[in-house]
Amino acid sequence: MRGKLLRGYGGFYYVLAEERVWECSLRGRFRLRKQDFLPGDEVEILVDANTGGGGTVEKVLPRRNALKRPLVANVDFAALVFSLAKPPPDETLLNRLLVQAEYAGLETVVIFTKADLLPADRRDAPDRYRQAGYAALCVSVVSGEGVSDFGARLRGRTAVLAGQSGVGKTSLLNALGGLNRKTGDISAKLGRGRHTTRHVEMLRVAGGLVADTPGFSSYHLPEMKPADLARCFPEIASRALSCRFKTCAHDKEPDCAVKAAVAAGVISPARYGFYLSFLSELRERPRHV
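Above: the chain's sequence. Below: its structure in token form.
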């Protein structure tokens, strides 16, 4: 049977195939190769009728994509989860995650939780990312706002869930799928969320699969050239062709369409500020010969 690897634990691999989960071991050839298996890998398994639910992994199919952090494969889109308040959104981290997703070629949905804590006229952050071309949802597990919208996007697809700790990622999964996973609280001393997810695994939620990932407190930019950064900001990439110079970096050059769009308010000055900061960071990285 063909299935999808949900997680590996203690030398066993749990595969979703034909609407049930099978506990599988590896063929010896995989162990000899020391082959890495990732949650989300599509595999073929052979089920042993005598075990009542066990089997072996016979083949790993080619991956459509694979992320390094978190380690997952065959993802359809990234759901980046941040809160509107308590804690406030860490937009530096959010923009780093967006760059990583764009560089990997992933569709992205930005989810702002705890919408019940802020009225609609004080939700500036989601508007910035909608202006940049992203789908940005406001959700609340208290009021139910936006939960079904995210569920509809997830149905029949595989998503990786990542973002700031303590913003309610696990609570959102519980609301979507009737799960009863342990949730964390906010450290009163540090103002940060405590990590409640310790390893990557695929969860069956709302008719789709979600890779619930450990919380991140930092996120490095990809190993990329400074010239590649602009394409990881959709609103900048769409206007770069109108710049005077084809090699325009959109920071110091004259007749730059991107800077004109920032001045006109078409591109968010905050997003442009993150672009400049990341551009400087990439330029300062040691170059490998």
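The mean pLDDT is 86.
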